[in-house]
């Protein structure tokens, strides 16, 4: 095993190292706050006053970041020792900070600092993934647990940040007034290259890289940021907005970044599983999955044909790409999803036009596990014990790539997967023969690319606070691609809180001081067929009334969202047949009441979705969601689903949904939380069929 050499300071006091190890080993039982060694000084004071960080101090000062580190905040600083800085200088052929530019220093300093406090206990809980909050350079850092080897024996455990920075665990958790310091024995690496550039450095994916270039898709992975967007132009929009009984402070997004995710199949997998050893064989494989168009000019191997979106190889490669930067532990969420009953699942549009990708994190405690590898992220996996004929293995996503490589670019990230994926006929028949439940967060890439969703969902902070960790946002007109809004309407996002009556903890609201809002957006694509489209939302007295349209055609009467004391007060049960405490009903009663509601276009909330019920912020970790500390949506007469559309959807057409205000007086808001797109094979089962489940 390779020996890890750390600074001699790391082991000055053996007892301290032993204590640190015990704290890391028992992170489930110890609060992160309990691990701090408190010092009444700022980060700026700390690095200036410690001779071991004098070289890092020079870098921070030249970068102009020292003033930031002297202000109040909640920073984690991975501070490199002088040895670490000296090793970095040697690796790039210089001898002092004087030979670095201001821009170089800014990149180095910003890479080492994260805008949230993470103790070693917090880091342990993130091992194998990424630190959710970005560093000051806007990047998410990967984290691995590493042994500390001395004289052939493991004497401790530490962390490696971004495959480079090694935490000196014996000196970690040094708290200051505005954060926490973890000394590191080597600098954290970062890349300013775009995604195709860093992928080309990985010779494990030569065939994939070649095909990305030949299809011209590398040119579509270059955008970094919309520099014309300036949040100062929209500061007037920020402030308190009322939502029911709450005042929520809403920010405008600070950036408008672009991002990409590529799921790459290594050459070794192509060879071992498919017998593919060159790009021509991969082209032939693509033709077997996308036979439509054979004989056409675009169905060939010329450069012009390969760059056509209809070309089979182009389709195959583009289907392995998302137009969002998907951090491994942000491609799905546990928030409100009761994994004892169902796996967290998301559905994302890919860069292959009019196609959708299923992302599922498999747990071992529900009936949908099958033979799959537990605690693994899958693409296009299908397993339902009640419909075994639809089983499809899918591809497993590896959280990291090869040793010594940078996985994250300035505008994206890539992963290895262990199978090819496609949107061919078999995938459509099996994977999409299911109820698609999409949080609206899944639909717009801008949300993930600009880090809109917080990773802290169990917060009991006042929503009125501008400094709250869980932020709410109001979006300027034109911020989203493929979304049209009217100038008088407010488009608002309420951040994730696991005690909200909202799927995955967050929700979107439409409101208007002028009593009028209007929004149109693209729907996710599905294979051609008959479908129901349902809207999940929460009935509240202060809601409004909206008219829904599909492809510009109005769907039924306007939807009245005023419930629990509003329009449905006193008539909800008698009018639509809703029965309280659904989970306590007999199987026959459940079946009958589901049928009664469905006949009128209503559905209970999902049984597998729960909100924390023991008080706001009482459960900090979404992994601790249980039957004893939460309530299922199906038992709440406010958390419901409403049928919006039933009829054909064409998989070759971009369908749209429009929501227009009918009643919005006094700021009455219309909530849209999640969509369900359900094929007739699921919702239309009658007679002795099992029918759609209540999960």
The CATH class assignment of the largest domain is Mainly Beta
General form: globular
Indicate the low-confidence ranges by residue numbers: 1-39, 565-570
Largest sheet: 8 strands, mixed
Short description:
By secondary structure, the chain is of the alpha+beta class. Helix content is 19%, strand content 23%. The strands form 7 sheets. Strands 11, 12, 13, 14, 15, 16, 17 and 18 form an 8-stranded mixed β-sheet that branches. Strands 9-10-20-22-23-34 form a 6-stranded mixed β-sheet, with no helix packed on it.
Annotation keywords:
6-stranded mixed sheet, 17 helices, FAS1 domain, 3 domains, 695 residues, alpha+beta, Jelly Rolls
Can you give a write-up of this model?
Helices cover 19% and strands 23% of the residues. It has 695 residues and is of the alpha+beta class. It folds into 3 domains: 8-181, Roll (FAS1 domain), CATH 2.30.180.10; 192-222 and 257-434, Roll (FAS1 domain), CATH 2.30.180; 436-683, Jelly Rolls (Sandwich), CATH 2.60.120.260. The strands form 7 sheets. Strands 11, 12, 13, 14, 15, 16, 17 and 18 form an 8-stranded mixed β-sheet that branches. The protein has a 6-stranded mixed β-sheet with strand order 9-10-20-22-23-34, with no helix packed on it. Strands 21, 24, 26, 27, 28 and 33 form a 6-stranded antiparallel β-sheet that branches. A hairpin with a 2-residue loop joins β26 and β27 (553-554). The relative contact order is 0.09. The model is unreliable at 1-39 and 565-570 (pLDDT under 50).
